[in-house]
Specification:
iron-sulfur, two-stranded antiparallel ribbon, Aldo/keto reductase, alpha/beta, eight-stranded parallel β-barrel, 17 helices, 4Fe4S_Fe-S-bd, iron
Length: about 450
Amino acid sequence: MKGDDGKHKISRRAALKYMGIGAAAIPASFYLNSCGKKIKTDQIVPDLTNIPTDKMTYRTLSKAGDRISLLGFGTMRYPTVERETPEGVRRFIDEEKAEQLIDYAMAHGINYYDTAWMYHQGESETFTGKILKKYPRNSFYVSTKLPGSVKSREDAIATYHKQMEKLQVDYFDYYHLHSLSSDSMYERIYKEWGMLDFLLNEKKEGRIRNLGWSFHGDQQLFNKVLAEPVEWDFVMIQMNYLDWKYGYVPAEYMYNKLVERNIPVMIMEPLLGSRLAKVSRAVLEMMQEESPNSTPAQWAFRFAGSHPNVMVVLSGMTLMEHLQENIKTFSPLVQINDKQKDMLLTAADIIRSIKTIPCTDCKYCVPCPYGVDIPGVLLYYNKATWDSNLPNLDGPRDAEFKRSSRAFLTDYNRTIPELEQANHCINCGECEITCPQNIKIPTELLNIDNLVQQLKTT
């Protein structure tokens, strides 16, 4: 993305024009004429024909010389299936569908697989190891992470060895200090308990080939860990066109700091938990003016992958069509230019103006000890906000308000079982500690429940 002295920048007038369109729900078959060109503004159906098997984009940025597919397979969002257990209904990995996804990914050039101790309540590492065991060890790279939930040095070391057993490997290609989010957690696990020295010795002994960290903390912690007298092999950050300027720590800041130190970057949440896969009418119009057939997800992935110091862009792909669309985007990746980057940053301004809760459905907050479906409640509220279906308590109590209130409550009860709704939160705070997006979850649940209770009385 070479500079062009701003000649391609979107003007303020143009940005205001798009923002003035608003973020209303997109009606089917809605068309808008602009500059003599007919633009379809419903969501775009990706072309899933002719998925290449031999055109994947690879990057060789690691000191080990690994040739890694720019699209990496994140295993946090495997397809699931419900089953009865003695503790009630639980969701388990749908192994048949998940195996089909991995087999398809391998056949189409994806060679990087990212997992973690807590994904799918501990099942992800075991399942990932079982499926990858079918393939030659030198045909894939596997990554996992030391969880911040370990209780002692002994527990941390036991967890590390158990991960090797679950993944059925005798070395880790990439190993993370997972989700560094607070200075106290970092100091306790990696300094007081000596786990940083332990992991560095494991690397020296060859059981870890590349050592780095994934990050969800503040700028002070980022700079502190970056300044450690350690040759970090990679760092994973949350990066997308919304977080580029507006992240808790702006992704632009972190990316540029890592470039300065020549540390390869891994990308998580390129779609912000699918928030950037379906965009408002205003944003979609901008995207279609630039490229009528590109989906919002393709734009988001192209933004992340176009930065040259990015080693891998991770995507948690639940459905086959997600996997196919993403493979096509990266086979090969068409990098965005400066004009397109400016368009996406203007889109970020529009998206930011819509006040949603920054939940990415990572599920680090569950299970809730009181049974609340935390991500389900937050995402339901976000969808109602995004689709402009949120009843306005400050407006007139007219027929339209009553209609929208009934619709909101009906869909809420259909989407979230009664025993898992926000009113069961007792503000214990356990979820807030684990949230990588720093959401004040009990406060948000209380606000949503207050809305629900008020709507019930109208």
